[in-house]
């Protein structure tokens, strides 16, 4: 290690433990003195750099952190509450909007017929009195009833039209079975006089306070059932 | 019921996580606040500003304590945060502290005691060093970092760091030697 390199190294890092540097120190006693001089300077520098630290600084640092932490945690829970509230709000709004949206009864009637395929094969021979009991439990149709048996009834159950409790009946038509839905009248329902898809034809009509939806394969059956209903339903 | 038990269990682990984080932070503060404060002081030259920067540094450290994987690297990590906070100070406030610092340093260290005269002088000289020479010296003496580590912290190459350290010591030694000579001449 030449003199210049040695001096640069000594000035740059007097405490260096680099073997090459240590060997260079041992080469010459004046070098050792030179390095010791610099080490002495470093010791002085170290003392000089040690300015007084405020006594309570570490306490202050911990206090500040804890205050901030506490604050942010409270903010976080506030945020969570706001989140939950807004989710609930949106859910509430959309649910009530959904309930107010107009409902196409025809589509629903067809969907129900497809959905409850067991209805078409059932043969429970239901009395009109049983149907009346069911009618009495429908909101808005408490006073409606059948005055006599409207032909044979094979099947009856409650069903749901967009949240409105209704009755699902399967009746005897002239040629085949007819599905009849008795739905309490409501403004948002759109009653179509006739509707159909590739398998079924449907008919909608009003009887007293109820919407009647008849679905069958044959048009004649619909007319037949309609007449029966008009005659027996009050 | 099972759910409740699980929730309780989860919240206790969260709590103990929180607790160990708090312990880690506390020991970090206790072990390193003096070095960090001193480094900040020599960076900005003002007691109060140094305290502010130290506060900001530790607060930021708390927020990202999880990102500190190796506790041995804590000092370098804190110094990186501190240097960023110091730089941010200049972005925020448009006035330059470096104009103030020499005056400030004179006020901070009174040379009341004879024995402290040399230290007072040295401090003044350190304060007068260009920041680019002072910082590597601080890192070496306060931080105890090697040339490579300083190079990495300051984003410089090692040779530049060694040159700056050389010049810093050279300037300080010169001043000290001349005052000694002058002192002897006066005596």
TrEMBL record, chain A:
Positions of transmembrane segments: 79-98
Keywords from the named record: Membrane, Transmembrane, Transmembrane helix
Pfam families documented for this protein: DUF3379
InterPro entries the UniProt entry points to: DUF3379
Name used for this protein in its record: DUF3379 domain-containing protein
Taxonomic source organism: Shewanella gelidii
TrEMBL record, chain B:
Keywords: DNA-binding, Sigma factor, Transcription, Transcription regulation
Keyword Iron among UniProt keywords: no
Molecular-function annotations in GO: DNA binding; sigma factor activity
GO biological process, one term: DNA-templated transcription initiation
Chain ranges of the RNA polymerase sigma-70 region domain: 28-94
Entry keyword annotation includes Transcription: yes
Residue ranges constituting the RNA polymerase sigma factor 70 region 4 type domain according to the UniProt record: 122-172
Pfam families, per database record: Sigma70_r2, Sigma70_r4_2
Stored InterPro entries: RNA_pol_sigma-70-like, RNA_pol_sigma-70_dom, RNA_pol_sigma70_ECF_CS, RNA_pol_sigma70_r2, RNA_pol_sigma70_r4_t2, RNA_pol_sigma_r2, RNA_pol_sigma_r3/r4-like, WH-like_DNA-bd_sf
Family statement: Belongs to the sigma-70 factor family. ECF subfamily.
Name of the protein in its database record: RNA polymerase sigma factor
Species of origin: Shewanella gelidii
